[in-house]
Amino acid sequence: MSGITLGILGGGQLGSMLSVAAKKLNIKTIIYCDDQNAPSQNFSDEFIFAKYNDKDKIYEFANKVDIITYEFENIPFETLNELNKLKTVLPKPSINRLIQHRLAEKDFINKLNIRTTRYVAVENKEQLLPLGDFLPGILKTTTMGYDGKGQYLINNVEEINSLNIDFSKDYILEKLVKLKKEISVIITRFGNNKYGIYEPIENIHEEQILKSSKIPAEISKKLFDQSKEWSIQIAEELKYIGTLCIEFFIDRNDNLYVNEIAPRVHNSGHLTINAYNVSQFENHIRSVCSLEQVLLKKISNAEMINILGNQIIPYRKNPKLNDNQFLFDYLKKDIKEKRKMGHLTILK
Ligand code: ADP
Ligand code: MG
Q: What are the φ and ψ backbone dihedral angles of 194, each rounded to 5 degrees?
């Protein structure tokens, strides 16, 4: 055994795949999650079910582990900060606080002279009404959004009155980009100018949820290089430790924009499990646990398809696969519409 115990906040499929990667490195995992049915308890060594603001449980968790990381960004900053006083939390809580706030995140990216879509803060309807210049646009909650949750598409000013917007929350209005493609870049940073970067991944979304990802992305050399360059710049500027994902838009004139940063392993990187010698999950663990950095090598082109809701049923009944196909069932008990239940990776 390595003797290391890694604590992971969050118990979804990303926590499961981190636990599997940790096991391969002889690292023990303890998952902490506020969902009693968290699927990653099927894959981790230990599971603590408690609220993220439960001081006693947080303390118990910290006492049991050597290092702490997280598998989703919407963990209260206070929790990460408290934990960081007891054990090292990576990525740093301050990075998570910056990125989990869409406005702070976009301000940060623009300060680096990296392009994002045009955006403006919106706190109430009176502020929204004169913003026709940003329409068509998407109104997004500044915090806690994922898979398109907390978002309103607004085509014109007239539509604002017919939308039932919950203004107890703060928003950001983003001008809609006329999308040609979406890509993402996954990078694991180990220290100053020490990083492993995966090639850009092309992503297809349906109803704001990732449907499929593939490498190679069908993009120009210029966009290939620029997306990697910007990703390295962001990771270095944040002094990031661990794996992060940068989501990009490409518009119809081949302009590149950063959409958002995920301070964690990412759904579009699931194909790295089978397509690379070291996956995004293993790399994250190597980085946060200060293990040796291994040079990344691509093994194969690949496509990953998300299995949503009851699409998982036929796979569970008859999991017959070809040699180049790899199925991951997240073992979620409740099948819900559009819920990510598993994924299939096909090597090409
Ligand atoms: P989430 O945090 O839910 O992933 P995103 O901001 O990444 O939110 O939005 C989800 C998806 O919605 C994007 O991947 C993209 O397909 C679409 N989308 C979001 N913002 C814009 C925009 N400004 N222009 C065009 N499409 C957008
Ligand atoms: Mg996104």
A: -115, 105
* pTM of structure: 0.96
Pick the CATH number of 179-347 from 3.40.50.2000, 3.30.9.100, 3.40.50.300, 3.30.470.20: 3.30.470.20
**Mean per-residue pLDDT over the chain, rounded:** 96
Measured in Å, residue 240 CA sits from the centre of ligand 2 at: 19
Does the beta carbon of 117 lie inside 6 Å of ligand 1? yes
Please tell me the residue having the least CA distance from ligand 1 atom 23.
176
Distance CA 73, CA 6 (A): 17
| Same CATH fold assignment for domains 118-175 and 179-347 | no
Fold of 5-89: Rossmann fold (3.40.50)
pLDDT digits (tens, 9 = 90+) for 157-216: 999 988 889 999 999 999 999 999 999 999 999 999 999 999 999 999 999 899 999 999
Q: Which fold has domain 118-175?
A: Dna Ligase; domain 1 (3.30.1490)
pLDDT on residue 121: 97
What is the tens place of the pLDDT at every residue in 228-276? 999 999 999 999 999 999 999 999 999 999 999 999 999 999 999 999 9
Query: Using one digit for the tens of pLDDT, what is the confidence trace for 58-82?
Result: 999 999 999 999 999 889 999 999 9
Angle between helices 13-24 and 280-288 (to 10 degrees): 70
Residue 1's pLDDT is what?
Answer: 59
- Domain range summary for the chain, segments of one domain joined by +: 5-89, 118-175, 179-347
The minimum-distance atom of ligand 1 relative to the CA of 150 is 3
Separation of CA 322 and ligand 2 centre (Å): 31
